[in-house]
Amino acid sequence: MLAKKRILLVIGGGIAAYKCLELIRRLKERGAKVRAILTTAAQEFVTPLSVGAITGERVFTDLFDLTAEHDIGHIRLSREADLVVVAPATADLIAKMANGFADDLASTALIATDKPVLIAPAMNPRMWSHPATRRNVARLKEDGVLTVGPNSGAMAERDEFGAGRMAEPMEILGAIEEMLSPQQQILKGRRVLVTSGPTHEPIDPVRFIANRSSGKQGHAIAAAARAAGAEVVLVSGPAEVADPQGVRTLHVESARDMMAAVEENLPVDCAIFAAAVADWRVADASDQKIKKDAGGAPTLHLVENPDILASIARHHTLRPRLVVGFAAETEQVVAHAKAKRERKGCDWIVANDVSPATGIMGGDLNTVHLVSAAGVEDWPSASKAEVARRLVARIAAALGEAGR
Ligand SMILES: Cc1cc2nc3c(=O)[nH]c(=O)nc-3n(C[C@H](O)[C@H](O)[C@H](O)COP(=O)(O)O)c2cc1C
């Protein structure tokens, strides 16, 4: 997919620099040609020797390097690439890029380039959330720079947790592939509906019952369907992630709101129900905040919520041609998914194991099984974006087979 593509990789001085070696290997495996610039700080974390051994190319470190300047020059270096990738993008490099600094080879190449730029920020959560970094990242986005990550999770520093971990090499690779491979409009002319995120079921005006769904997988599917040319409606519960670009996103809170929004947006060619819809709601949610001293702990009486997947899959007049459900299970994943497919009357179930040990709920990776009438496919672990692209490709193929 990346055969003969030329990547200029700018490696900044962060702990995550070691992950670049893996990224370079994966890029090379796919046929890309990688040239690397290491900042001075980056050389404290990885050596030009190891980067050069893996790229199989000369490594560039100095702006005032007569041999390099004679050979290729910093301007050519930045232009003779299809894409410039900055990973790890340190707070410092991001600040320099946002403000147009050019006081070393990395920053000079970055301001001299006329090619698309992708950054993979990596830093301590406090550095990432600092107003200066927020401003700089916003400015870079306005300038058309694309970002991948950062992810949330444990930091290299002990006891630190939060957003700032560099995206994993496979995720960066996915973003690179997305930028460099012309997106085929395999869903052009199709209408796709996606649900995503958790639902919030009110107990009273200030409290609710929720679940740990982040919305990452559903939103990634909506984005992938859009990138494939579909007209996409995303019905989203209160998700942690931003609305995907180019997708009409309807924000809902409860399962009943989600059901109504889904019904209002039929007919569609394909509906993908990735939301983690609450099975139950409180029967008699209070109009006023329940007071602690009103006679001990309240008893919540739960009633079943509408089953969105089953009602749409069994809809008499407006059933989409392809109905895809999700099954989040913590045990007997495939067996439960098979049973769910039969019970709900949908075409496919995408099943995943959401036991806490897998880190899938809220995480960036997913390992899924596609359960259909034809059997069960076990997909390898991949980023949620990659799972989304693969699912979209399958949907396009299935809709194509069924005829337009
Ligand atoms: C052990 C160590 C780890 C560091 N990790 C990071 C990091 O992950 N992200 C970051 O933005 N800065 C990090 N820094 C600070 C940068 O190395 C420093 O800001 C440096 O000037 C960045 O230079 P560069 O942007 O030219 O690579 C770290 C510093 C040290 C000493």
Structure description:
The chain is 34% helix and 23% strand. The protein has 404 residues and is α/β, with parallel strands linked by helices. The protein has 2 domains: 6-180, 3-Layer(aba) Sandwich (Rossmann fold), CATH 3.40.50; 191-401, 3-Layer(aba) Sandwich (Rossmann fold), CATH 3.40.50. The strands form 6 sheets. An 8-stranded mixed β-sheet has the order 13-12-9-14-17-18-20-21, sandwiched between helices. Flavin mononucleotide is lined by residues 12-16, 39, 41-42, 88, 90-93, 122-123, 127.
Write a concise keyword list for the protein shown above:
6-stranded parallel beta sheet; alpha/beta; Rossmann fold; binds flavin mononucleotide; single chain; 14 helices; 2 domains; 404 residues
Fold topology:
Blueprint: E1 6-11, H1 19-29, E2 33-38, H2 48-55, E3 59-60, H3 66-71, H4 73-79, E4 83-89, H5 91-99, H6 105-112, E5 117-121, H7 125-129, H8 131-142, E6 146-147, E7 151-154, E8 161-165, H9 169-180, E9 191-196, E10 201-202, E11 208-209, H10 216-227, E12 231-236, E13 248-251, H11 255-264, E14 270-273, E15 280-282, E16 302-304, H12 308-313, E17 322-329, H13 333-344, E18 348-353, E19 365-366, E20 368-372, E21 375-378, E22 382-383, H14 384-401
Parallel strand pairs: 1-2, 1-4, 2-3, 4-5, 5-6, 9-12, 9-14, 12-13, 14-17, 17-18
Antiparallel strand pairs: 7-8, 10-11, 15-16, 18-20, 19-22, 20-21
Helix pairs in contact: 1-2, 1-9, 4-6, 5-8, 10-14
The structure holds flavin mononucleotide (FMN).
